[in-house]
Structures are given as structure tokens and as C-alpha cells.
Amino acid sequence: MEETIQKIAIFAIPVLIAVIFHEIAHGWVAHRLGDPTAARMGRLTLNPIAHIDLFGTILFPGMLILAGSPFVFGYAKPAPVNMYNLRNPKRDMVWVALAGPAMNLLLALAFVVVWKALMPHGASGLPGGSWLTPLVLMAQGGLLINISLAVFNMVPLPPLDGGRVLVGLLPDPLAARVAGIERYGFLILIVLLMTRTVDRIIDPPMEFLLRLYLGIF
Q1: Lowest pLDDT segment from 53-57, 90-94, 184-188
Q2: Does pLDDT of 127 surpass 60?
Q3: Potential cystine with 163: which of 2, 145, 158, 202 (Cβ 3.0-4.6 Å)?
Q4: Per-domain residue ranges of the chain
Q5: Which residues, other chains included, contact 187 with Cβ-Cβ below 8 Å and sequence gap of 6+?
Q6: Which residues are identified as catalytic?
Q7: What are the pLDDT digits (tens) for 17-30?
Q8: What does the DSSP 8-state code read for residue 47?
């Protein structure tokens, strides 16, 4: 029980950072491309209260941690985007969708920099190790969470970002069919998670990105 509490405490802040910045990125890019909806609704703020979703930001990541999942991710309240305000709705929605995973990859880079900077000083027995070790573990968690979130969201299934990118790239008749899957998307995701199919889909790109990021430093 104590170990579980420690894991939740270490992952809580990185999860919040990952999901909040993910949604801010969607709203910010949409604003730059002509849709001010997120800005008008106060969703471009760093205030976590504006973004937290009880299930997606707190309960779902907590359940993954308790279940010993090899990856941890969550989601915040989706950034409101009105695609018809965009200057080129179909094309610009691709950029809006890509913004979230791109932000998580940038955050993963920041976390690995922090991890590598603190690691020599965060080991027990070294000066400052007693209080730096949790920060090292948070940086490790931040790296894993952000890579997980980026890769998972790029699975080409609506309503995930990868599904929205796919809809934006396909010809209109086929795009409409793929977009129609969105009403069943959450149920499909539950099945994929329960059957561990998601693990098999995202493990290879996650492993590649982890090796890449760690190899940089």
C-alpha cells in the first residue's frame, strides 16, 4: 500500500503537466489558425482547475498505476475547437490534432534533460540525495507519461488525435466513414485496453522513442 501511494505521489504532477499542456497546445494552435473558442472559454490557462477531468485526469491514471500497467496516461477536458472557424477546416484540424502529441514529445525532452541533470545528485547516500531522489523519479515518470500520451493519442482511431489526423488526410467520402467511427471510439478503446491490444500497438514506438531520447544524452 505504501509503495502504491508513493507511485501515485510521484506520477501525479507529471500526469497533470502532460494532460494540461496537451490540451493547451490544441487550443493555442486552433487560436492561431482562426478559432478563438478555447481562448474565449478560458482554456489557454495553466490553472489546472480549468482542465481537470475527474475520470480522465485522476481516476483513470490511478487505476492504471494500481493495475501495474506498463504505461500510464490520462486526459484532461478536451480543448473546445470549432473547426468551422478555422481558415481551412479540414487541413487545419490536422495541425490542431498534431499539436497535443507534439507538445508531449517536447515535454518528454524537457523531463529527460531534468532527469539527466539531477540523476548524479539524486542517489541515496549523496549530498541532497534524500530530497532530490523524488524529483529524479518524477522526471523519469514525466518522460514515460509524455511518450505514452503522445504515442497512444496517435493511434489512428477517432476520437484520438491520430484518428482526427487520419480524417483530415483522407479523401472526403472515406474521411466521413472514418469520422463516423467516433461514436463507438470509446467502447473500442476499452476493448483494446482490456485485451492488452493497445500494449502491442504502442510498445514498439514507445521503446523506439525512449531509446532515442535517452540516446541523445
Answers
A1: 53-57
A2: no
A3: 158
A4: 2-216
A5: none
A6: 23
A7: 999 999 999 999 99
A8: -
146-161 burial code (b ≥16 CB/10 A, e <16): bbbbbbbbbbebbebb
Helix/strand/coil percentages in the chain, nearest 5? 75, 0, 25
The three cell numbers of residue 157 are 482511431
Q: Return the number of other C-beta atoms located less than 10 Å from residue 123's C-beta.
A: 13
Give me the percent of the chain exceeding a pLDDT of 70. Answer: 88
Q: Letter for the amino acid at 59? A: L
> Which of 67-89 are b and which e, b meaning 16 or more Cβ less than 10 Å from the residue's Cβ?
eebebbbbbbbbbbbebeebeeb
Average pLDDT, integer, range 146-166: 93
Residue 51, number of CB atoms within 10 A of its CB: 24
Q: How far apart are CA 15 and CA 209, in angstroms?
A: 18
Are 152 and 71 in contact by the 8 Å Cβ rule? The answer is: yes
d(CA 81, CA 50): 15
Question: Would you state the cell numbers that stand for residue 180, as one nine-digit string?
Answer: 463516423
Burial class of 186 by CB neighbour count within 10 A (0 to 12, 13 to 18, 19+)? exposed
- CA-wise closest residue to 110 among 18, 16, 27, 8: 18
Asked which of 73-87, 116-130, 201-215 is least confident by mean pLDDT, the reply is: 116-130
Q: Does residue 138 carry a pLDDT above 70?
A: yes
Phi, psi of 133 (to 5 degrees): -55, -45
